[in-house]
């Protein structure tokens, strides 16, 4: 069974540009989460989807970040316009039920210059 | 003050040593306690999962939770070079609208052959 996949693995963009990250959860997992790790800090929650609905987006830093999960399958996280402080590793995780184990993807390393 | 505190290390031990990793937390609502292992350039992988207080053992790994002290530990017996990784503690509360994980910063462990 394929795990959580994320694309791209690494993205380097300039300040002010737009970047879109993609996450494909494990097949059949209704719950999808985005987390972010900024260098030197802990992994922090961004938001949680249940199917296509946003269950909790309390961790989204500001309105430059837009997450979608159309059709309840894969999800995208768009950053527009990107700022220097957006650099970090963005992880996606999925789980079958609300309180089941969260399986993490390998992350997308975003560098904003 | 962070909700979860974890010594970032790095921690270097010889092969065969017993390793003790710890986290403290401030939120008494946390009921679920997890240890994740993260190899370089990979996503976190669930290692141990404990509900409420007590001990849990799985092979060479033992997780302990002391809710009265708000303190959790992971012990690794007979450590191996393949155990070299970053170990992250994570926690969440029970119930509520989301099951977002709150992470510690992670402890980098190196087991020297």
What characteristics describe this protein?
heterodimer; A: 113 residues; mainly beta; 7-stranded mixed beta sheet; 4-stranded antiparallel beta sheet; 11 strands; globular; B: 113 residues; 6-stranded mixed beta sheet; 5-stranded antiparallel beta sheet
User: What percent strand of chain B?
Assistant: over 45%
Distinct helical segment count of chain A: 0
The percentage helix of chain B is: under 10%
| Series of H and E elements of chain B | EEEEEEEEEEE
Largest beta-sheet characterization of chain A: 7 strands, mixed
Give a quick account of the main beta sheet of chain B: strands, pairing sense, barrel closure.
6 strands, mixed
Low-pLDDT segments, ≥5 res of chain A: none
**How much helical structure, as a percent, in the residues of chain A?**
under 10%
Structural class of chain B: mainly beta
Describe this structure in words.
- The complex is a heterodimer of chains A (113) and B (113).
- Chain A is mostly beta strands.
- Chain A has no helices and eleven strands.
- Chain A has strands at 5-7, 10-13, 19-24, 31-37, 43-50, 53-56, 65-68, 75-79, 88-95, 103-104, 108-112.
- In chain A, strands 2, 4, 5, 6, 9, 10 and 11 form a seven-stranded mixed beta sheet that branches.
- Chain A starts with a strand and ends with a strand.
- In chain B, strands 2, 4, 5, 9, 10 and 11 form a six-stranded mixed beta sheet that branches. In chain B, strands 1-3-8-7-6 form a five-stranded antiparallel beta sheet, with no helix packed on it.
- In chain B, a hairpin with a 4-residue loop joins strand 7 and strand 8.
- The N and C termini of chain B lie far apart (38 Å).
- Chain B has strands at 4-6, 11-14, 19-25, 30-38, 45-51, 54-58, 61-66, 71-76, 85-93, 102-103, 107-112.
- Chain B is built from no helices and eleven strands.
- Chain B is an all-beta fold.
- The interface between A and B is medium-sized, with 26 and 24 residues.
């Amino acid at each position: 069974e394929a795990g959580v996949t994320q694309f791209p693995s690494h993205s380097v963009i300039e300040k002010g540009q737009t970047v879109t990250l993609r996450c494909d959860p494990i097949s059949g997992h209704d719950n999808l989460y985005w987390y972010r790790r900024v260098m030197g800090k802990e992994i922090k929650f961004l938001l949680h989807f249940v199917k296509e609905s946003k269950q909790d987006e309390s961790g989204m830093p500001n309105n430059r970040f837009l997450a979608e999960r159309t059709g309840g399958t894969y999800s995208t996280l768009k950053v527009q316009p990107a700022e220097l402080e957006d650099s970090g590793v963005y992880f996606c995780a999925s789980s079958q039920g609300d309180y089941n184990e969260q399986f993490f993807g390998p992350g997308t390393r975003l560098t904003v210059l | 003050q962070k909700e979860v505190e974890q010594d970032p290390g790095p921690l270097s031990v010889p092969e065969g040593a017993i390793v003790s990793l710890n986290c403290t937390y401030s939120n008494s609502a946390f009921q679920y306690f997890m240890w994740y292992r993260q190899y370089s350039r990979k996503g976190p992988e669930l290692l141990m999962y404990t509900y409420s207080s007590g001990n849990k053992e799985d092979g060479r790994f033992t997780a302990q939770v002391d809710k009265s002290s708000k303190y959790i530990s992971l012990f690794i017996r007979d450590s191996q070079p393949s155990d070299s990784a970053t170990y992250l503690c994570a926690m969440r509360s029970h119930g509520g609208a989301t099951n977002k994980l709150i992470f510690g910063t992670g402890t980098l462990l190196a087991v020297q052959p």
